Amino acid sequence: MNQQNKRFLWDFWRRLERANARALPFTIEAHMHPGTRWNGFAPIGTLHGPEAFLDSFWAPLRQAFPDLRRQCHIFCGGPSMGKIDGSKDGRMCVGGTGLFHATFAENWLGIQASRKPVSIRWGEIYIVENGWINEMYTILDVVDLAQQAGVHLLPPSHGKDGIYPPPLNDDAVLLERQDETRTARTLDLIRRFIFEGLNVYDQASLESMGLANFFIPDIKWYGPGGIGACYGIDEFEQFHQRHWLTAFPDREVLDIDCLYAEGDYTGAAGWPDVIATNNGEYLGVPASGRRLEVIGLDYWRRDGDKFIENWVFVDMVHLFRQMGVDLMSRI
Questions:
Q1: Cys staple from 102: which of 65, 135, 190, 311, with CB 3.0 to 4.6 Å?
Q2: Does the model's pTM come out above 0.90?
Q3: CA gap 116, 172 in Å, rounded
Q4: Mean pLDDT over residues 191-195, rounded?
């Protein structure tokens, strides 16, 4: 089933990219169930059905970036096990991450077109059932794209901007069947990391999370626009985690909408996957005291009994909107 689903989605991506304006509706309707829910990123939000997906997301994206081409860095699939109690949720996932390369030809989401080449970070996970796409989770890094166009929606990143490479081994487009033992090890590690590591923070000491039990010392952590990339646990804690936990000290990881693994790679998406109270300053914005939710999508690469790379997407526009700040108005 997983191999069939991967072939189906890979074909959908290729057809979606190549179809002209006349063929696009038929291509989309041939792959997406009429009741498909597209869980998207702000300021677009959630869409229902193939027509809304085309009219509100894909067609405007293609109009703004007419020579859009997808570069896939990671591609994998498998059954989801995102519940805290370990029970299966019966959902079959396929997804990946990489870059859209294109010329920014027309304005998009209020961002003025630069007329220059850009690389848009994308992360997606799809739920495929009975030969149909039933649900989709998609984040494009709007903050990073705006920065490429010369618009800074957030202060300079603590980490390194513009860092979003493929896996070091460049071996993550898993079109072929993977070893089930390796898959099981990866799934076990990611579940322990999310539900036993990230959820045990004592609101006082970063060491309480036990990151050294899950990350190698020189972990490559590729964060979203506004946060940046971090190299090694020390940078991860100094440039990202310390600021994050000061702002959201009581954050709690929920059941994950999609959590799956294949081979040495694993992906997760949650709309939301974390809830927290904004009790501290974050990236120049004072504490709001509001209870909020975090929308995120991640991919990890395992080597041995630890993760060595992590590609991270956070819907920053949605996050700051809940803190009382409309990042898009800063354009």
A1: 65
A2: yes
A3: 29
A4: 94
